[in-house]
Amino acid sequence: MSEMIKSIALSKLTAHPDNPNVMGDAMFRKLVRNIERTGLYEPIVVRPHPKEKDDFQIINGHHRVKALERLGHKEADCVIWDVDDEQTAILLTTLNRLAGSDTLAKKVELLKKLTERMGTAQLAKLLPQTAKQIERLAALKDSVQRTACSVQYEQFAIPIVFFVTKQQQGVIENAIEIAFSGQRTADRTQTTKAQRRAGAITEIASKFLGTENVKH
């Protein structure tokens, strides 16, 4: 694999047909703004196209290429990897998902500095977080940050995606409604529907685990 960065015409870059990564319109607009504002982006990872001579197949950076096209760029900085189909398939499923996690204290400090310089509204156009999330994070007090972080961080949900059949969906929805009915009225007015549904699923799972622990 070569780590040398090479400028390649966008017309020579082909999206991999099996790329599973998708990006919502709002996040894509933020990607475009970031590249437009800074002129910087992570080099695109490509391989020599297995069928088209002199062309390259994108392994990582499909959305960056689309953003560059949107901005009128003719070329992209690329890193060329000489990998076969099997290696490419593995990379397609891992490159966008293997990542660390933020240290919340440092992230809060960075957001405070950026908010002071740019303002929340402008910052929300560039970062993955919404303006409301940025405001909540930047408002954390230094004196209570260590104790509050664990509570505050829970407000920024971690998505769990899985696919079910229509019948399974019905069972799950019925269980959630039953769990909903057991929640206090005060709790229902102070939380969003998504938070209540997450709480209901957690309650169902906790009861299941409790039963399993008794059995085993």
Report on this model:
The chain is of the alpha/beta class. It folds into 3 domains: 5-94, Conserved hypothetical protein from pyrococcus furiosus pfu- 392566-001, ParB domain, CATH 3.90.1530; 104-153, no CATH class; 166-215, no CATH class. 53% of the residues lie in helices and 11% in strands. The protein has 10 helices and 5 strands. The protein has helices at 25-38, 62-70, 85-94, 104-118, 120-124, 131-138, 145-153, 166-181, 185-190, 193-215, and strands at residues 5-9, 13-14, 44-48, 56-60, 75-80. A 5-stranded mixed beta sheet has the order 1-5-3-4-2. A hairpin with a 7-residue loop joins strand 3 and strand 4. Helix 1 packs across helix 2 and helix 8 packs across helix 10. The longest helix has 23 residues, at 193-215. The protein is flat. Residues 142-156 and 212-216 have low confidence and may be disordered.
Question: Key features?
Answer:
5 strands; five-stranded mixed β-sheet; alpha/beta; Conserved hypothetical protein from pyrococcus furiosus pfu- 392566-001, ParB domain; single chain; 11% strand; disordered C terminus
